Structures are given as structure tokens and as C-alpha cells.
Amino acid sequence: MKKNSFISKIAGNRILIPIVALLILAVFNFIADPSFFKITLGYNNLGNPVLSGYLITILDYGSELAILALGMTLVTAASGGQDISVGAAIAIAGSAMLRVLCGADGRAETLQTPIIVAFLIAVVIAMAFGAFNGILVAYFKIQPMIATLILFTAGRSIAAWINNNQLPIVNDQGFTVFGGFIPGIPIPTPFFIAAACVVVIMLVLKFTNLGLYTQAVGINESSSRLNGLNPEFIKFITFVILGICVAVAALIKVSRLSTINYSVIAKDIEMDAILAVALGGNSLSGGKFNMWASVLGAYVIQFLTTTLYKFNVQSDALPAYKAIVVIILVIISAPTVREWMGNMWTRMNEKKDAKEAKVNG
Amino acid sequence: MAEKKPSILNRLRNMTDTNLLLTITIVMFFLMYIGAIVFQGKGFLKPQTFFNILNANAALIILSVGLSIVMISGSIDISVGGVTALVCMSCAVHLDYKGGNVFTAFLLALGIGIAFGFIQGILIAYLDIQPFIVTLAGMFFARGMTTIVNTNPFNVENPALVALKDTRIPVPFLGSYNKLGEYINAYVEIGALVAVAVVLILFFVLRWTRLGRNFYALGGNRQSALMLGINVKRTKFYAHLLCGFLSGIGGFVYFLHVGSGAPTHAAGAEMNAIAASIIGGTLLTGGVGNVIGTFFGVLSLSTIQNIVNSAGLDDAWWTGITIAAMLCLFLVIQSLVLSRKKKK
User: Fold this and answer.
1) Model confidence at B197, in pLDDT bands (50, 70, 90)?
2) A146: nearest CB among B145, B151, B274
């Protein structure tokens, strides 16, 4: 009996799933090719020290995913559904940012406005689109995934429309810092941005009731209403917070290329963000969540992506493999399967006990 | 005393949700079509214009009907577009590279569709996993598999398939005279006939068979369906199986229409199918809907796209924005219809 409770305690800990997944991936890579873990220090074409290697790539590209996972975890917890428009919203926010930075003709030699202004405008726009999703979900009671399907379809079109379908290019070196390296620091900047976002969210969760309220609404909407909460507003606000996360991710994405490709930027990232939340052991139907697990989940997803790329999987074929991972994850975490496995476990124990009783008796 | 002749308003108020939403859809379609005739000229008056819309959207009609059934039973399937692309690519490879014939290609299409429906159905109905997650994974899996089957798009050259693709079935009495005064028959493609047949068959299935009624009962209220002695899990499973089967057929019809395989085929079809079902009066919450409505939903969607295109807004992004706007409008209408029910 003691053993049983110990195992269930470990299994009940949400952060275990991403850690186990990470270990499996790491061991797999170590056996297949130990050079996966090699990190080299080099200099980029500007003469700044940069670290390179697969692990750095994971740290780099996993960060934007981690930022999205923060917002997605809150949305999932409160509304019991996911926002599938994050990729399209990144395209919109990025497009707006470039429009402000490059001016109307998109070919300006210098920045038309300071980067911070462009970023803040992108934040406001992304929050507005988040609010649109939030209103549909919270006040019109449309299932989150259907409501966000609207923006999922129209988003990239709107992004192209903002810049008249042109592809503005930023010529300023200062803008590449956000998706690249700060001069003199060999660790990619997105990691620091992600760390800052995580700290902010953790502080918000610690000093406000946001975390408690979202979980209450996600667990039981009507009883949280009876306790004086306003479930509609809380759902709405999670979508707006996701909007801020989207704008930050858009900054990194656009900064990497200094330009934008409306149909390709952040493609399929909604799948990765949802996967990160699921991998973090958070229930996709709302309720309790663990933010650390989601963030770790995001990096594990990037680990998986990088591993697949390393084995020369085409980028278009990636979704097939990730889909299999999702299916395995949801099957493991399905309540029916858990119950069944629990029953199996107790039956095995009973058999063992009976055997021991027989031996002793 | 109750009034003898109920006013139209009263009659509307007392309609069931299904009929009310169906009426809105059909009225909307005719208004839109009349609008198209008035603003876009005589082109829309020709019967062939209508048949062209039907030909181009046959696959979408079949996919949407399948999706409507799933939605009526209170679930969702967004993998239909991906499955269509996978079916097209597999059939194309089967015909041109593996030397298969059209009949085995059709069986292959059905097999893929049923396999998707079966697995997703089991996961959703028996393991109680959120349908959206399962079918989202299904969609990504199908799209990824399409590239794994073959990366490059290509046109199929199998003569039997090309012959089938170009088959035109004349429609009597509805032809028109061209500029030289010659009479040209109106025509439909095979796919359009299949689509109409599917709609009619499923209309009867939903209305007059036990299975069809179970779908409505399950979507309307799962708890009471259970108490009525309906096997809810099996019913939900059948809904997904049927949807998978229909996406197999729809995929093959799409393949017949385009005659090629490409990873980008039917991009966004799941969105169009959901939009068509919702415009056709299927409630997202389940229990309400009608495949005839879905049929008109597809036609409305396509008509408005035609209007947008011929109004000179032919940039690709306008189509996406229009569909999203229409979907948004109808979602709000649904929300209002639902609140009407609560007030009563």
C-alpha cells in the first residue's frame, strides 16, 4: 500500500511528464549521435561571440514557444479550450510592427519610429485581437477553438492587407538584437526575453488572484460565479494576456528575419503551443495548471522538433510525427485510460498479495 | 381566445430551432443570389453558372455534410481537409506510379477515410478525449503524411481517370445560346451528382432512421439520451465513422475534380466545411441541424466568394476575410437563437 501511494504521488506530479519526455529524448539523441550535445563558441559576421550547437538552437527557438505557452496555459485553464489563432495573430502583430517601423512604402533606409513604439503598437493590436477572441468565447459562449478558427482563417489575410501585400525590410542592425544576440553576450536574446516573461507572469500569479481565479473558473464556472467571481471577465482577460504573449513572440519572429512572410511565419505554432501545454501535464479541458511544466514542455517540444530536423525530416512532414506524440499524450492522460491502468495496478497488487498470503499460509 | 391566423412573426417564434435556422439559411441564399444577379449582371442568370458552383463545390458539400452529422451529435471533426489532401495524393500516386486502376483507387480513398473515422471515433467516443484535440492531431497527421507519400504536386495522366474527370452529364432544358446562336447544353460533373445523392440519402437517414434520430438525441442532451437507453458511445463512434467515410468519398470527388495530387490541396477546407455547416443552421452545441441546410450553406459560401471575386476584390486575402466575417455573423445569429430558447 505504501509503494502504491508513493507511485501515485510521483505520477500525480505534473512536471514529471515533461521531465520524463526530456530524458527519453536526450538519451535517444545520446545513443544516436553524441555530437548532438556539442556546443561551440564562434564569432558571427559582426564579430560578436556566439554559441552554436543543437542545444543552443533549442534554447533559441524554444523561447518563443515558451512565451506563447504562458498565455496558452492561462487560456486553457480558464476556458477549457485552446486558442488556435496564435500563429495568425503573430503574423498580424509582426506585420503591424513592420508597417510602423518601415513606413508606408516599406523600403525606408532608416527606422521611421523607435522600436519601442512599434512594439507597443503591436502589443495593442495583438491585445485587441485577443479581446475579439475573448468576447466571442466569454460573452457569446462560442467554443474557444471555433471562435479562434475565425482569426485562424482570416489572420494571415489581414496581416498581408496591413502592408498591402508588400514585404517590408528593416535595415537597422539594432532590430536584429531581439531575435539574435546582444553584442558581447553569447547566449541568444530570445532566452532572456522568455525568462523576463516567465518572471513577470510568476510575479503576477504570486501577487494577484489571477491564477486562483482562472483555475476556479476552469474547474466549475457556475460555482465560481456563486462565489462572486465574474467568469466571463476572467476568460476574457486570459485571451487579452495571450495577446500580449503573441506580440512578444511576434517581435522575436520578425526580428529573426528583419522581414515577414505572411503565409509561413509562425506556421503550425498553435499546434506546438497546445502540445506544450498538454506535455506540461495540464488538463486540456481546463482547471488546474502548472506554469513551470508548460514552459518546460515548450522546450521539450523544441527538442523534439530539432531532433526530427536532425534526422532530415522535411519540415512539411513534421506535423505527422508531432501528431502521433499528441495522440499518445492525450491517450495516456485520458481519464478512462488512467482509471483502467489504475484498476490494472490494484489487480496486480491484489494478485501479489494473494500469492504472498498463499506462500505464508 | 387564441388568434385564428397566427402572424408570420408568431409562426417564426414557434418554429423549432432546426426549421428556423434552415429558413434563415435558404432565404439568405436566395437573397444573395438575387443580389448577385442585380449587381453582377446577367452571368448569374444562366443556369450553367449555378451548375458551375455545384461542380466546383461537390467535394466541399460532401465534406460539410459529414461534418454536419458530427456537429449534430455534439462533436467536431477538423481533419476533413487534411484527409482530402491525403486521399488525393495517395490516389494520384496509386494511379500513376503504382499502376493501379480507378476502382482500386476509389477503394483506397474509402479505406483512408474509414481508417481516420475509425481511429478518431474510438479515441473520442470510447476514451472520452476532446474531439478538437484528436481531430487537430488527425489534421496535422494527414497533412504531414501527404508530404511523406509524395512531396511534389503532379497531374495524374491515367487515361481512365482523365476520361472520368472530363465526363460531362448534360442537364436537359437548361442550356443556353452562345453568341453564335448555337444551343449549348448545361452540364454537371459526376462529383456533383454524387454530392446531391449523398445529401438526399443522409437527409433520409437523419430523418427516418433510428441512427439518425439518435444523433439528434445525443447532441441535444447526452444525459437524457443515455436515459432513453441510447448507446451514446456507439452513436458518437458511428457519427465519426460516417464522417470519415464521407471525407473518403469527398476526397475522391475532389480528386476527380482536380485530377492531381498536391500537399496544398483542400487547404482550409475544414474551415469552409465548418462555416458551411454553421451557415446551414447546424448548432455548434449539437442537436440542431439539417443536411439540406448544409447544402445551401456551401452554395451561399461559394456565391459570396463569386460576388467578392467579380467585384474586383480578387486578391486572395479577401476570400479568407469574407468567410471569416460570414462565420462570425452566423455564430452571433446562433447565439441569439439559443438565447431565444432560454427566454421561453
Assistant:
1) very high
2) B274
Query: Do the Cβ atoms of B66 and B246 come closer than 8 Å?
Result: yes
Residue B220 belongs to a domain: yes
Q: CA A173, A174, A179, A181 torsion: positive or negative?
A: positive
Q: Does B329 touch chain A (CB under 8 A)?
A: no
- Show the cell assigned to A342: 489504475
User: Cβ contact (<8 Å) for B320 and A154?
Assistant: yes
From residue A233, alpha-carbon distances to A110, A236, A241, A317 in Å are: 42, 5, 12, 40
- Rounded CA gap, B34 and B305, in Å? 15
What mean pLDDT do residues B152-158 have? 85
- Would you say residue B64 lies in a domain? yes
What pLDDT sits at residue B107?
93
Residue B34 lies in a domain: no
Helix boundaries (H) for chain B:
8-13, 17-40, 47-56, 58-72, 80-96, 102-121, 131-149, 159-166, 190-208, 210-220, 222-227, 232-258, 269-279, 291-310, 316-343
> Residue A84: closest CA among chain B residues belongs to which residue?
B136
Share of chain B above pLDDT 90, in %: 28
Q: Do B321 and A149 touch (CB under 8 A)?
A: no
Spans of chain A, pLDDT less than 50: 1-3
Predicted confidence (pLDDT) at residue B315 exceeds the cutoff of 70: no
Coil/strand/helix, residue A109: coil
In a domain, B20, yes or no: no
Substitution target from A143, A157, A166 for chain B, most B beta carbons within 10 A? A157
So what's the ipTM on this one?
A: 0.75
Closest Cα to residue B149, out of A121, A320, A63, A242? A320
Residue B5 pLDDT: 56
A154 neighbourhood in chain B, CB within 8 Å: 320-321, 323-325
Alpha-carbon A310 to chain mean position = 22
Helix and strand element counts for chain A (H, E)? 14, 2
Chain B residue at shortest CA distance from A278: B133
| Structural domains counted in chain B | 1
Question: Do the Cβ atoms of A334 and B335 come within 8 Å?
Answer: no
Closest among A67, A127, A101 to A252, alpha carbons compared:
A67
A-chain residues near B316 (CB < 8 A): 157
> Which residue of chain A is at minimal alpha-carbon distance from B132?
A145
At which residue does the C-alpha cell 439559443 appear? B338
Helices A335-360 and A318-333, axial angle in degrees (round to 10): 50
Set of cell numbers at residue B74: 455534439
What domain range is B146 assigned to?
A: 45-266
- The CA–CA distances, whole Å, from B142 to B126, B148, B263, B331 equal 22, 10, 10, 28
Contact A331 B127 (CB under 8 A): yes
Cβ contact, residue pair A154, B145, below 8 Å: no
- A153 closest CB neighbour out of B128, B130, B323: B323
